[in-house]
Amino acid sequence: MPPKPKFFVAFLKKIVTQRYMKILVTGGGGFLGRYVVNKLLEKGYTVRVLGRSEQPDLKAAGVDVIQGDIRDAKIVRAAARGVDVIQHIAAKAGVWGTWEDYYQINVVGTRNVLNACKELGIDRLVYTSTPSVVFNGEAFQGVDENQPYGENWLCHYAHTKMLAEKEVLEANVPDGSGLRTIALRPHLIWGVGDNHLIPRVIARAKSGKLRIVGDGTNKVDIVHVENAAEAQLRAQVALERIESCGQPYFITQGEPVVLWDWINGLLDRLGISKVEKQISLTAAYRVGAVMEGVWKTLRLKGEPPMTRFVATELAKDHFFDITSARNNLGYQPAVSIEQGLDELVDKLKAS
User: Fold this and answer.
1) In sequence order, which residues have a C-beta less than 8 Å from that of residue 173 and are 6 or more positions away?
2) Residue 5: per-residue pLDDT
3) CA nearest 60: which of 49, 69, 51, 70?
4) Residue 241 falls within a domain, yes or no?
5) Across the chain, how many H-helices and E-strands are there?
6) What are the two backbone dihedrals, phi and then psi, of residue 213, each rounded to the nearest 5 degrees?
7) Is residue 252 domain-resident?
8) Residues in a beta bridge with 129
């Protein structure tokens, strides 16, 4: 039976829209950014990337790569010219560095993106935030987006991401007549291609320097990078519905893991000795405070092996309610933890 006319018109409109819609991905050469870029390409979108590196492989895949710094308003405006949607993923992550560096990249950089949207008439923006914007030093057990912004930050990353997220959400025009924004808060992104979280855990475990902080029973949310990337695209579509805009959304697997059991399970599958030595949160917190002082006073390179923020995060529960993401974005984690682990372990063993 031939397709119904309305269905055919809607289908054709979707194909044409995607074919001629151009998406700018800031930080498109990073871990999450690359997955987002690949998903956009697979769906037929025209993609432009703004980042510090040349990204020859992305160019080869047909991506328009603009090399530049998110802190440069002129570069951001040039990269944004002619695009329909911006996926703003670029950020300074980590737990150590100067306030100025974090502020300029995370806050001023985001402000540059917002200004470009307003000046060029771009009406859709997906901002990649973090659950750390609600950090207050306490455990989180199934809290939703009504949890207020944090305090007593302990790290510039969390503080500056909060400032940036607030500006993004405040820029949303409620009646849909102007800029529409959504902020996503993916928690502990992992998977193949990660060059930060998993590699550092493995390296410290191999060196015998990794310690269980606290009693080892704390539960945390994690999210596979494929699921995090899918959430970015879901949010992009959700920008068409004004009732979904102007809000933050926690993005996770929807099933918290016992952090140290999960880490030890990964290490065991890689043939690496499990972590058994423990240190109390109180002791780790004090060690972190001392190390922060030493690194600041002596201006040492790199980041301290322990900080107060890291000690807190490693010892306490941090899991969130993703009901809003499921209902408003249609988000559903498609890649299970076990599937993600199988793929990651195979890749790590082969490398």
Assistant:
1) 179, 180
2) 62
3) 49
4) yes
5) 14, 15
6) -95, 125
7) yes
8) none
This prediction has a pTM of: 0.93
Q: Which amino acid is at 250?
A: F
Domain holding 106, by residue range, is: 10-350
Structure tokens at 266: 């990964």
Q: What is the pLDDT of residue 351?
A: 83
- Of 157, 249, 285, 331, the active-site residue reads 157
CA dihedral 26, 27, 33, 39 (to 10 degrees): 30
Residues 6+ apart with CB under 8 A from 230: 39, 331, 334
pLDDT tens readout for residues 48-63: 999 999 999 999 999 9
Q: How many residues does the chain have?
A: 351
* Domains: count for the chain: 1
For the chain, percent of residues with pLDDT exceeding 70: 94
**CATH code of the domain in which 270 resides:** 3.40.50.720
Pairwise CA distance, residues 99 & 105, whole Å = 10
- Assign 311 a pLDDT band (cuts: 50, 70, 90): very high
Q: Does any domain span residue 1?
A: no
Question: With pLDDT > 90 as the criterion, what percentage of the chain qualifies?
Answer: 92
Active-site annotation holds for 149? no
**What is the average pLDDT across 28-35?**
96
Distances (CA, A) of 112 to 70, 109, 154, 179, 332: 7, 5, 26, 14, 32
Residue 128's φ and ψ, nearest 5 degrees, are: -90, 110
Q: Is residue 5 included in any domain, yes or no?
A: no
Q: How far apart are CA 92 and CA 102, in angstroms?
A: 6
